[in-house]
Amino acid sequence: MPIRIPEQLPAQDVLLGENIFTMDSLRASHQDIRPLEVGILNLMPNKIETEVQLLRLLSNTPLQINVDLIRIDNQAPKNTPQSHMDAFYHEFSQVAHKKYDGLMVTGAPLAHLDYEQVKYWSNMQAIFDWAEKNVQSTLYLCWAAHAAMFHHYGVNRHLRAEKISGVFEHQVLDQHNELLRGFDPVFFAPHSRFGHIESAQYSGVDGLSVLAESSDAGAYIAASDDKRKVFVTGHPEYDPETLHEEFQRDTDAGLSPVVPVNYYPQDDPSQSPLVRWRSHGSLLFTNWLNYHVYQTTPYDLNSLSGSDSPSNED
């Protein structure tokens, strides 16, 4: 089944070129089913690139999905045309009355700021609290995962002197967990961050479990037992060239970045990246939509209020 996205969103042409089925609002209105309502709170500067990455992963499911793109505030984005924001994004105040089956919150380039120094931190706190009652399951990526841990549980990250950058080997810790269904016991995933929370800190929170981790990059996937919160500290959505573009950007800025680990053959940036994370990234999103969203969400979203709502599944 397709994902429903706004007409003329640039991501639509990219996805259609990859033979990914999307539909516009008119066609979706003729589908006699209850689609999933998914919000994407996009905090990344290059919003168009992030849209394509996330929508690509959401598309690999038999479920029909309605997507709302959400912005954190009305400030002009750094690397996205204002016309794009005006055409395709909702301010949070415009959707705060809605209830969602799923919400995705992206990372953000805010590594060296304390949370209270982030200009929209109060907005983030309001959204975190709103999601508790209005979203069946929320998937937090990278910076958002750390920010949510701090807000909900008081667990603060620490900043590493050297950035964790590269494609790291991970181990599945709970092979029977639905979120990891179909995963190989060992798999690869990209990371790009300074912030770090130890696996023991996740596990030390009552009701949270670490499901996959890396001996080098630490905890990768943690989730609440009630399936309402999923914390992913890496970037399964990244395109093949994303880490290279980050490395080149920081090099050009004179920051002397570390070469992303296990990314280039022989760690040689002149060679094309070795891509080995996309299948598991796709599977992670599919499992989240199926087991944490579709099979737990109420058919009538207006009844959503807690973790024991009746299932959407027949």
UniProtKB/TrEMBL annotation:
Locate the active site.
C142, H235, E237
Primary location group: cytoplasm
The cross-references to CDD domains, in alphabetical order and at most eight, read: GATase1_HTS
| This enzyme's EC code(s) | 2.3.1.46
Transferase recorded as keyword: yes
- Chain positions recorded as substrate binding sites: K163, S192, R249
Q: Which residues cross the membrane?
A: none
Extract one GO BP annotation from the record. L-methionine biosynthetic process from homoserine via O-succinyl-L-homoserine and cystathionine
One Pfam family named in its UniProt record: HTS
Tell me which family the UniProt entry assigns to this protein: Belongs to the MetA family.
HAMAP family for the chain: MetA_acyltransf (MF_00295)
Q: What's its job?
A: Transfers a succinyl group from succinyl-CoA to L-homoserine, forming succinyl-L-homoserine.
What is the protein name stated in its UniProt record?
Homoserine O-succinyltransferase
- Source organism per entry reads Salinimonas iocasae
> Could you read off the lineage of the organism from its UniProt record?
Bacteria, Pseudomonadati, Pseudomonadota, Gammaproteobacteria, Alteromonadales
- Gene (UniProt): metA
